[in-house]
Write a structure and sequence with these properties.
disordered N terminus, five-stranded antiparallel sheet, mainly beta, 32 strands, Immunoglobulin-like, 423 residues, Jelly Rolls
């Protein structure tokens, strides 16, 4: 879901006696047709937001209880009915009045994404716009960089002179490796607060091989009281669930063939708001809450993207090659987990296409499938697997939606193939 949002400060007010401030923010509505609401993220450091506030369907909201004298950064995202978030808007910042004399954070210009061939030599990237944040702040700046995927980009070095507002980041991809790495560059002025600015960009090396790995939840290592259940509608006829809140877990193991950034689709059944979450940890790291069916509860199985209340929606995982473990721990009893897809293909949607002959209202084949919210498709047909004709374009799925189309153009007994293209 794309989201082009203009973000700006509307009004600001402060209460000096309490050294707190509030700010009202407004933005242009998204042009997407499947937007359910907006969420503002904010914090004392750009590109890393400790707090969020749900604005619902409104295009303005007031953030209160900001500490006087601190600089806050804000960005806004749109989200669908299932909670999938758009790309964030451009950041704006606000200096809350009151408190001690403020320290303005340092500055660093955004860094564009980069694509390199496999076995690329060391590549230099110019870092511009490096300042202390204000002409009257004469601070010693430090510039650092970290790779989110050292298996793809293991070597980074930064050359920075305090006498100019630019520097150079040199990165060297690992030999013979395809993949994606997120590089984060930070500038720190050494102050106690509002001291840091960070910019992240993606480096794509070679042509990453797109991989979709299916793991059945019931095949994992189960710890009671989480148990395996039976349902003919589940993949493989079985699923896992717990009868006790906050107790019981399952470990789902997956063998990653290529270091890259991955997302996880989960097939879940959550009948209501009291049975719609798990705790999820990755390779033993800290747990985050996965809300399985944000505003899309029901009695049917559905695919939703793994999300995290603090790690984002969707939750993006950087995996090295080899075995990794996703641990789903019960949070709300009754939430059911059937299977997971681990994929590094951002366009992948787990959809099962079914075709069956029909005689009414006309002879032909009925093509049907269920879609997660937020996607639209081209239904295409072919007689030889070489030439494909578009038969039907769906609307955008607003919920976990069922689509069906009858192809009456085929001859009785003729060979016919069907496929879906995600738009």
């Amino acid at each position: 879901m794309g989201c082009a949002l203009l973000f700006f400060v509307l009004t600001a007010a402060s209460t000096r006696a309490q050294s707190t401030a509030s700010v009202t923010l407004a933005w242009d509505p998204s042009v997407s047709t499947n937007v359910a609401g907006y969420r503002v993220y904010y914090g004392e450091e750009n590109d890393w937001f400790q707090y969020s506030q749900n604005a619902g369907p409104l295009t303005a909201t007031t953030i209160r209880n900001l500490e006087g004298g601190l600089t806050y950064f804000f960005t806004v995202v749109a989200y669908t009915v299932t909670g999938v978030e758009s790309d964030p808007s451009e950041e704006v910042f606000y200096l809350a009045p009151g408190g001690l004399p403020p320290n303005l954070p340092p500055t660093l210009d955004p860094i564009p994404n980069l694509t390199l061939p496999v076995d690329a030599p060391p590549t230099a990237i110019r870092l511009t716009g490096i300042t202390t944040g204000a002409p009257d702040e004469d601070q010693a700046l430090t510039v650092s960089a970290v790779s989110g995927n050292p298996e793809v980009v293991p070597k980074l070095s930064v050359d920075f002179s305090p006498y100019i507002d630019s520097g150079t980041l040199t990165l060297t991809p690992a030999p013979g490796v395809n993949g994606v790495a997120t590089i984060t560059v930070s500038v720190d002025d050494g102050a106690a607060r509002s001291n840091r600015v960070s910019r992240s960009f993606r480096v794509t090396v070679g042509t990453p091989v797109r991989t979709n790995l299916l793991v059945e939840a019931e095949a994992g290592s189960v710890s009671g009281p989480l148990a395996r259940g039976v349902d003919s509608g589940a993949s493989g006829g079985r699923y896992v669930y717990s009868t006790v809140d906050n107790s019981g877990s399952v470990n789902c193991r997956v063998n990653i063939p290529q270091a890259d950034e991955y997302m996880v689709w989960c097939r879940v059944l959550s009948p209501d708001a009291g049975e719609d979450s798990f705790y999820v940890s990755v390779d033993g790291t800290a747990e985050d809450v996965y809300d399985t069916a944000i505003n899309s509860w029901g009695s049917n199985w559905q695919w939703t993207l793994l999300n995290g209340r603090t790690t984002g929606n969707p939750r993006r995982l950087t995996f090295s090659r080899g075995w990794h473990t996703l641990t789903f721990r019960s949070r709300e009893a009754g939430a059911r987990l059937d299977a997971v897809y681990v994929t590094n293909d951002p366009s992948f949607v787990p959809v099962q296409l079914l075709a069956k002959p029909v005689v009414s209202p006309a002879p032909g084949f009925e093509v049907s499938f269920n879609s997660p919210a937020g996607y639209r498709y081209n239904v295409q047909a072919s007689d030889d697997l070489r030439t494909w004709t578009t038969l039907w374009r769906t609307s955008v799925a607003s919920t976990n939606q069922h689509f069906a189309y009858v192809d009456s153009s085929t001859r009785p007994g003729a060979r016919r193939f069907y496929r879906l293209l995600v738009q």
